[in-house]
Amino acid sequence: MTSPKQSLPRFLNFYGRSSLSIQLMVVGVIITLFFVLVAVMAPSLQAWEWLQNPRESLSNPILEPPGVRYWFGTTRQGYDVFSRTLFGTQAALQVVILATSLSLIIGVPLGLVSGYTGGKLDRVLLFLMDTIYTLPGLLLSVTLAFVVGRGVINAAIALSISYVPQYYRVVRNHTASVKNELFIEAAQAMGASTPRILSRYLFFNVIGSVPVLFTLNAADAILILGSLGFLGLGLPEQTPEWGHDLRQALDALPTGIWWTALFPGLAMTLMVVGLSLLGEGLSELINPRDSK
């Protein structure tokens, strides 16, 4: 039995780590909400005369560094970097939300059914998901992008396939460990159908780690989307997208034109950091790890 003197330091340590987790999560929420707000307000801001259309170059293409007229400067092709960075947020969120939601919608039900029923279906699904899981996410996304082509929906499909096994594995393992609990056996004895057991008794007991996985996958998806855009495989040519803009800025860097790469890269980095902090904070709060 633990004495009060031994329990107090452990409590203070847990409280301190929990406070840090909350702080990290708050910072992540603030950064993420900022980008969400920017994406939502971008179309309204375009109605203002001073905000250039991100898909159209200036009437007189000029190259200008950041200043009063063009806050983030312009590119060699005459595009407003501020406008393209702003609307790049919208494109990133659209693809990332679609990709992570699609992988969640597919992976969670498969994990529930596989973990609960077991047998041949479980072995087949486990083999398939493990095969996909062993493939590098970027390589798989690039390959699928070649097949499905460009576009928001196509990019989301290319990204989502590599995340399905993660949801499947987490939910399947939790389901397999919970399905023999007494409350499941009681539901079976009362004649509850398999869909009812899965949806009412198992679902809410096995999805605790899904929100954490969702945010971390979203952060990873932004990097992969940027990589696809950098390789010319993401969204259509004129669509403002951070990875594509970084590729266009690559040739300008040796000549001292730094601003065309700085601001899209900084936006991508901040968004990834925000989602990562949010995911890590959620992970520590949901599954606190006691120090020994």
Automatic annotation (TrEMBL):
Pfam families: BPD_transp_1
Protein origin, superkingdom: Bacteria
Compartment(s) of residence: Cell membrane
Gene3D superfamilies per the UniProt record, alphabetical: MetI-like (1.10.3720.10)
Principal localisation: membrane
Keyword Transport attached: yes
UniProt keyword Magnesium present: no
One GO BP: transmembrane transport
Domain ABC transmembrane type-1: 89-279
Keyword tags: Cell membrane, Membrane, Transmembrane, Transmembrane helix, Transport
Protein name in the entry: ABC transporter permease
